[in-house]
């Protein structure tokens, strides 16, 4: 869409809107036509499609005939001190090579460590320290992955439940600010950033930050515009008698997240944006309604 001003045409980039495609929605996504124009792409978790051939690969090819794909990894653990096992990296790279997705992403986390002489996988996305050693580690791991998949990868900022001020004094002195770390990671590795607004919001709320949305709007200005390659939106659930908010992607996008998205979509104009919903998964219609809200926000005013 374009608008004319003093004989000059200014083209505003279209923002693609996607949703996380989970198992319970496969049937409707493939064979339903309800509001299908609301979705430009869908995200799938890479590990669900590592098997060679079979029904899962057939399904993904069918999905790819209808939608552009975003392949989102959860198993690489690029912040781990130990290299991604070759068999995991090989499966990930083969999937990317076969489907040539619109977007490829992973998380800023670690998930492997030596325990009693054995290399164990946590089965979770564990946060890393924002220090020079962690930066060197993840840059090295990202470069290795990008060399295998022959393209840049997007790295998602993480929700974390242990804050720097809770670390010992020596470690705290070595900590960078989160956005400083993210910027250096992108600059040194050539990767992009998957900016998860819900994760930023959860961290701010758990720190009891005053005016968290205003604080985050200001903080977003610290990020290089060209580093942000995708934006994630999600909701969270709260529980009685628990002070900490857990990132469960189990509810509608919060009003605070929508407000932050409206600001971010102007700052990072044209960046593909996706609604995630991973637990307490709603009907396909409800998920599409969330996509419609995102679409209405990014439409040129």
Secondary structure layout:
Layout (H helix, E strand, L loop, with lengths): L1 E4 L2 E4 L5 E4 L5 H6 L9 E5 L8 H13 L1 E5 L13 H14 L3 E5 L2 E6 L2 E9 L5 H18 L4 E3 L12 H6 L3 H12 L2 E5 H10 L5 H9 L7 E6 L21 H13 L5 E3 L8 H15 L3
Parallel strand pairs: 3-4, 3-12, 4-5, 5-6, 6-9, 9-10, 10-11, 11-12
Antiparallel strand pairs: 1-2, 7-8
Helix pairs in contact: 4-6, 7-8, 8-9
Describe this structure in words.
- α9 (255-267) links the parallel β11 (228-233) and β12 (273-275).
- This protein has 301 residues and is an alpha/beta fold.
- It is built from ten helices and twelve strands.
- The strands form three sheets. The protein has an eight-stranded parallel beta barrel with strand order 3-4-5-6-9-10-11-12, surrounded by four helices.
Report helical residue fraction: 25-40%
Give, in spatial order, the strands making up the sheet with the most strands.
Answer: 3-4-5-6-9-10-11-12
- Rg over C-alpha atoms, rounded to the nearest angstrom: 19 Å
In terms of quaternary structure, the protein is single chain
Helix/strand class:
alpha/beta
Profile the largest sheet.
Answer: 8 strands, parallel, barrel
Amino- and carboxy-terminal Cα gap: 11 Å
Report the mean per-residue pLDDT as an integer.
Answer: 87
- The beta-strand count equals 12
What is the overall number of helices?
10
Low-confidence stretches: 1-11, 166-173
- Give the topology string: H per helix, E per strand: EEEHEHEHEEEHEHHEHHEHEH
